[in-house]
Structure formats: C-alpha cells, structure tokens
C-alpha cells in the first residue's frame, strides 16, 4: 500500500524544542516581555514563527506589526543557535536507513522556514536521502492546508493514499487527512495522544521502529 513516508521535521524527526524556545525567549527578553519554560513551547510552535510569537506574548501586546517584528528578531537569533541542542530522536536514524531498503521514498514537509528546514536537514540528516525537503515558502499556504503535501505527491507521481504521513501535532494529522494520506501520530513529539486522535490520526506510535510494522501490515 505505501510507497512513501512524508515526515514532519520538528517533534518528529528532530528534537528542536530547546533551541526554538531559547531563540524566542531571548527575543522576548530583548523587548522586555516575560519568558516561558521550554515545555510551554510545545503548544506555541507547529504553525508559523509568527503564530509562535503571538502565543508567546501577553494578550495585551499582540499587535500584528509587533508580532512580525518579534518573529523576525527571533529568527535572527535562531539562525545562530538552532544547532546547539537539536538532534534526531532515538530510532530515527535506523528508520531512515531501513525505509529505502524496503523501496520506500522519504520526504519532509515542515512549517518551518524553508531555508532553516533545508539547512537543518543538510547538517543533521545528510547521510539519508530525502527526495524532497520542503519548508514554508511565500507562495503556498502553511499546513494544515494540503497544497504542499499534494504538490509533493504530484511531483513524485505517487498517489496521496500511498503516503504514510508521520507527524506529532494536530496540524500534521489535519494535513494528512485533507490530502488523503495515512495519518500516523508520534507520541515522542510535542503534543498529546488525545490531540492527535481528535485530529484524525489512524495510528499512534511510541517509537519510530513501529512505522515498519504499519508498513508491513498494509
């Protein structure tokens, strides 16, 4: 049934939370606003850096122009610190090695800025082949809109229903459902089982190796 696996990046392939939180906290501190514990960012991120900035600010400070300014400043900091603590989750290297042995194509679709997405994959995941690495770009809507997921499927000439979509947030599960891909929620990421199931996950897994069992059973 499956010919490809579409991966989310943050919270799915890579633990990125501390570096993301550190960048935004430094930006908040710079502008005189309170900072947050690292775990709070599990619910701030997943859409766009501007959404993250809005959620990190007090409600009284959520002026659209300032949100954009905070987001841009945070990205400048993140550009310098993104590699300080970021690393693949346990079991991800083994999964990425095994998939091509079974004839499956691997791709990445992230709501992270496309430049960051590509740089991170190049620096941390370069020993594995991804046919497409796609981050957020100006001319396409962000996930959960299915546009980029469907564009990837068309580009690879693989029907959406032959993609296993692995992600860790409601945004990912909604993207999978709306694009016709098979939604699998990973519990090592940033959100809860209840959120993933409510957003359409067909299966929840605790370890990357469980992806192979899903592939084998279909």
Give a quick precis of the structure:
The protein is of the alpha/beta class. The protein is 44% helix and 16% strand. The strands form 2 sheets. A 6-stranded parallel β-sheet has the order 5-4-1-6-7-8, with helices on both faces. Strands 2-3 form a two-stranded antiparallel sheet.
Q: Find the structural class using helix and strand composition.
A: alpha/beta
Overall residue-averaged pLDDT value: 96
Order of strands, widest sheet: 5-4-1-6-7-8
What is the percent of helical residues? 40-55%
Low-confidence stretches: none
| Computed Rg | 17 Å
Give the overall shape: globular
Report the sheet with the most strands, covering strand number, pairing sense and barrel closure: 6 strands, parallel
Number of distinct helices: 9
Structure summary, number of beta strands:
8
How is this structure best described in words?
This protein has 218 residues and is of the alpha/beta class. The chain has 9 helices and 8 strands. The longest helix has 18 residues, at 64-81. It has a 6-stranded parallel β-sheet with strand order 5-4-1-6-7-8, with helices on both faces. Helix 7 (170-179) links the parallel strand 6 (163-167) and strand 7 (182-186). The mean pLDDT is 96. The protein starts with a strand and ends with a helix. It is globular, with a radius of gyration of 17 Å.
